[in-house]
Amino acid sequence: MRNKKYLFAIAMLFLLIVVGCSSKIKEEPPEAIVKINNETIETVKGTYQWETKGLFSNNSVIADAAAPFQIAEDMKAQIVEQSSVANIEFTDGSQPQLHAYLWEEEKRGEELPLNQHQIILPSEKGKYIIEINAEWSNGDSSYTFVVEVQ
Q1: What is the pTM of this model?
Q2: DSSP of 86-132, one letter per residue?
């Protein structure tokens, strides 16, 4: 009877270690999903830092990327109407703290108004590079998308 208890305890410990080590921990922020008039807009993840805490270890990742104006060079602008609203969601369903900025040439410009993960886009015609900064408790990330207001 005593051997069965030890065997059971060893089997449970082995199972706990296997399950604990095999669980996949997300090592980077989720992808951003930007929708304007129910149409998904291309976004590119930029610079981020992300920390994961496991049972036996902690992991920190810092990824550097080009500035949003450089990222936008390879992106196609989505044509939108004046004063459109962009809805921001994330692939993991999280609701991070958000900030959105216009990029003017090679520098960050004005902050865009945000209300419950909705960005009110500019009303003047033109091409706009927009950066979203998202902050979670375990990290932050930048995302870029491009629109052309007509």
Answers
A1: 0.81
A2: EEEEETT----EEEEEEEETTEEEEEEPBSSSEEEPPSSSEEEEEEE
Q: With respect to residue 69, please indicate whether it lies within any of the assigned structural domains.
A: yes
**Based on the structure, what is the number of domains in the chain?**
1
The pLDDT tens digits for 74-125 are 999 999 999 899 999 999 999 999 999 999 989 999 999 999 999 999 999 9
Domain that holds residue 74: 25-149
Between strands 139-149 and 78-80, the pairing is: parallel
The CATH number of the domain where 136 resides is what?
2.60.40
